[in-house]
Specification:
single chain, about 300 residues, alpha+beta, Alpha-lytic protease prodomain-like, Alpha-Beta Plaits, 2 domains, four-stranded mixed sheet, 10 helices, 4 strands, disordered N terminus
Length: about 300
């Protein structure tokens, strides 16, 4: 027996605030930074600027992927995709995480090569270009971060943009070191540090995205909280075959079989259980009521805190 959908529930799922406008602004800023850093890197001979420009180019691709995924995610469900197209947002995040790691690997290799044979750079020009890049990349990261929703899709884009702001900051530091009489190797060292930091962050984010795509329990959803909500529903004497996954990180779904007490008002049980799950953050539920356990799935024990 399926829980009745409250009016507007599907509408809230389908009408999630879109970050399209913010992504477009960030895209325009990234294109401007790319042009500036490519010209600056070629003129000054700075690998740090060129490596940062490589990340900006990846940012542009990532933002385009994010824009496309965001638009697809707003499409209505149909006979071919009854849940809609929300998963495209996560697939876009996966592609962007892979892009981030790949770009970091390329910069890492180039940095090692330049460390083995460092060359002089025009540090003052590098300093000016990197400062502009830091300000613009930082602004773009804040624009995307300020979106109403925070998911793997937005976080990977913030990581792209914020990583470039961090990279520009490292380039500024390397330029100051060179201007103070330090070795030219400071330039590729800055690129190396950027590459390693972004690669680690990218792999960590990639793990979360793969977890979501393999139907893992989404972050922020507690199985104990769900179990407690169901077990404490009046008329429920047992819970089994409980499953939790998500279409997107902020769109969790729950299915469960509820064993009801003899004589319980089944409609009341269904409505109360649905509302209890809504209070712990899950709005899309499918609940099956049974007088006797059907034997499907594993039984869910009452959490210890509930028993106390």
């Amino acid at each position: 027996m399926q829980a009745p959908m409250i009016d507007g529930q599907h509408a809230r799922i389908l009408a999630r605030p879109s970050a399209t406008r913010r992504l477009l602004i960030a895209l325009l800023l990234a294109i401007g930074v790319l042009a500036l850093e490519v010209v600056g890197g070629v003129v000054t001979g700075s690998l740090a600027l060129l490596s940062d420009a490589t990340h900006v180019l990846v940012d542009i691709v990532a933002l385009l992927v994010g824009l496309g995924a965001a638009r697809l995610a707003t499409r209505q469900p149909n006979d071919a995709h009854t849940y809609g197209y929300h998963r495209f947002e996560t697939i876009g995040a996966l592609a962007n995480a892979v892009l981030l790691i790949a770009a970091s690997a390329v910069v890492f290799v180039e940095s090692i090569s330049r460390l083995l044979s460092p060359s002089d750079v025009d540090a003052p020009v590098v300093l000016v270009v990197a400062t502009i890049g830091f300000l613009v990349n930082g602004a773009a990261a804040l624009i995307v971060h300020g979106a109403e929703r925070s998911t793997e899709a937005t976080r990977v884009l913030v990581l792209h943009l914020g990583g470039d702001a961090l990279g520009a900051l490292a380039v500024i530091a390397s330029a100051l070191i060179i201007m103070a009489g330090g070795p030219p190797a400071a330039d590729p060292v800055a690129s190396l540090v950027i590459a390693v930091l972004l690669a680690f962050a990218g792999f960590r984010l990639l793990g979360g995205i793969v977890h979501l795509l393999t139907e893992g329990v989404p972050a922020g959803v507690s199985l104990d909280a769900l179990s407690t909500a169901l077990h404490t529903t009046r008329g429920v004497r047992g819970v089994h075959d409980l499953h939790v996954w998500a279409l997107a990180e902020d769109l969790p779904l729950v299915t469960a079989h509820l064993e009801t007490d003899p004589g319980a008002d089944r409609l009341q049980v269904l409505q109360t259980a649905t509302e209890a799950l809504r209070r712990v953050g899950v709005e899309h539920t499918t609940l099956q009521l049974e007088s006797d356990p059907c034997g499907q799935g594993r039984p869910i024990a009452i959490p210890a805190t509930t028993q106390e």
